[in-house]
Automatic annotation (TrEMBL):
Protein name: Hydrogenase expression/formation protein HypE
Sequence similarity: Belongs to the HypE family.
Domain PurM-like C-terminal: 168-317
Organism: Geobacter benzoatilyticus
Domain PurM-like N-terminal: 44-156
Pfam families xrefs: AIRS (PF00586), AIRS_C (PF02769)
Gene3D superfamilies: PurM-like C-terminal domain, PurM-like, N-terminal domain
Domain of life: Bacteria
Length: 342
C-alpha cells in the first residue's frame, strides 16, 4: 500500500457530510462505535428516551447551507424546521429547542436580525419554544459567515413504535409531495443560474402533517423519515437496511415539479438524490394506506402526496420499476452530489 493511499484514507472529505455512503461509513466505522454503539436498527432521526414514565424524543443537527439566503427560506428557518421535523419523524410533539450560533467576524447585523426573525417565526409556526442557546464569534476566514446548531426535545404521546426497522412486507411507501425542490433551489441560487422558472425550497415544519398521519393510521404507521441529505433514494436505502426488507419504487408515481425535472435533466442530476426539507416518507400497512393518503392530501403540505412504492421480503435492497417497465437498483448517494445543501 502506498503512503499516499494511506494518507488519503485518513482524510475527511466533503462526501463524508453528504448523508450518503461515505457518511454511513464514517458513522459505522468510527463515530457510533466510539461514542455509543447504537445498533443500526436504532439509528433514526431522533432518539426516543424513557424518563419518569414519559417518552421523550431528542435530536440535534447543524446547518452550514451555502448560500444562507435562498428562494423559499434561509439558514434560520431551515435550522428550526429541520429540528422540528426530526422530532416529528418519531411521532413526537416538538416542545423545546436550543440554538447555537457560530458567527464569522464581519458578518452583517442586519442579516443576523433577519435570520433570527425567521427562526422565531418558524418556531412559533411549529409550536416549539427556543429556550436556551449559545453564541460564538470566530475570526475572519475561520468560518463561512454563519453556522447554526440546534437541538430539540419533543413528547411522544402515544405507544406507537415508529422506526426505520419496522417496515413490513406489504407496506405502502407514501411521500407528501414533489421531490428535490430544496436542493435545486439552493444550487440555483449558489451558482447564479437563470432557470426561467420559480423553484422554491420546500422548507416547512411537518409536525402538523405527522399528527394527521398518526390520527388516520395509528398502529399501521410503521416508519416516518424525512429525506434530507442524500434525498429519497438514500433515505429509503437506510430504511431497507434497518428493516432488512426490499423496497420497490414506481418511477411513474414519483411526484416531481416540472421545472426541477428539467434542471435535473439538463445538469445530469437524479432527483432521487437531491435534498428535501419539507418532505416525509411514510411506510404504512396496506389496509391503512388509502386513508393515510387521503388525510395527507387534506393538509396544505400534503396536497401532492402519492403512494410511490411498496415493501417486500428481501435483504436491504431498493429497486426502481422504471417508466418503461424495467427494473434498476437504487443505491445510496456515493459521493457529494450537491455540497452545503443544509
Amino acid at each position: 500500500m502506498s503512503s499516499e493511499n494511506s494518507v488519503n484514507r485518513d482524510l475527511i472529505l466533503l462526501g463524508h457530510g453528504s448523508g450518503g455512503k461515505l457518511s454511513h461509513q464514517l458513522l459505522d466505522d468510527l463515530i457510533i462505535p466510539t461514542l455509543s454503539g447504537i445498533a443500526l436498527a436504532g439509528q433514526n432521526d431522533a432518539a426516543v428516551l424513557e424518563h419518569g414514565g414519559r417518552r421523550l424524543a431528542f435530536t440535534t443537527d447543524s446547518y452550514v447551507v451555502d448560500p444562507i439566503f435562498f428562494p423559499g427560506g434561509n439558514i434560520g428557518c431551515l435550522a428550526v424546521n429541520g429540528t422540528v421535523n426530526d422530532l416529528a419523524m418519531m411521532g413526537a410533539r416538538p416542545l423545546f429547542m436550543s440554538t447555537g450560533l457560530i458567527i464569522e467576524e464581519g458578518f452583517s447585523r442586519t442579516e443576523l436580525a433577519e435570520i433570527l426573525a425567521s427562526m422565531r417565526s418558524a418556531a412559533d409556526a411549529a409550536g416549539i419554544s427556543i429556550v436556551t442557546g449559545d453564541t460564538k464569534v470566530v475570526p475572519r476566514g475561520k468560518a463561512d459567515r454563519i453556522f447554526i446548531n440546534t437541538s430539540g426535545i419533543g413528547a411522544v404521546e402515544h405507544d406507537l413504535a415508529i422506526s426505520g426497522a419496522n417496515a413490513r412486507p406489504g407496506d405502502a411507501v407514501i411521500i407528501n409531495g414533489t421531490i428535490g425542490d430544496h436542493g435545486i433551489a439552493v444550487m440555483a441560487k449558489r451558482e447564479g443560474l437563470d432557470l426561467q422558472a420559480d423553484i422554491l425550497s420546500d422548507c416547512a415544519p411537518l409536525n402538523g402533517l405527522v399528527a394527521g398521519i398518526i390520527a388516520a393510521g395509528g398502529e399501521a404507521v410503521h416508519v416516518l423519515r424525512d429525506p434530507t441529505r442524500g434525498g429519497v433514494a438514500t433515505t429509503l436505502k437506510e430504511i431497507a437496511l434497518q428493516s432488512d426488507k426490499t423496497i420497490t419504487l414506481h418511477e411513474a408515481a414519483l411526484p416531481l415539479n416540472g421545472a426541477v425535472r428539467g434542471v435535473c435533466s439538463i445538469l445530469g442530476l437524479d432527483p432521487l438524490y437531491v435534498a428535501n426539507e419539507g418532505k416525509l416518507l411514510a411506510v404504512v400497512a396496506p389496509e391503512a394506506a388509502e386513508g393515510v393518503l387521503a388525510r395527507m392530501k387534506d393538509h396544505p403540505l400534503g396536497r401532492d402526496a402519492a403512494i410511490i412504492g411498496h415493501v417486500t421480503e428481501g435483504g436491504g435492497r431498493v429497486q426502481m420499476e422504471t417508466a418503461v417497465g424495467g427494473m434498476r437498483a437504487v443505491e445510496m448517494l456515493a459521493g457529494e452530489q450537491l455540497p452545503r445543501i443544509c
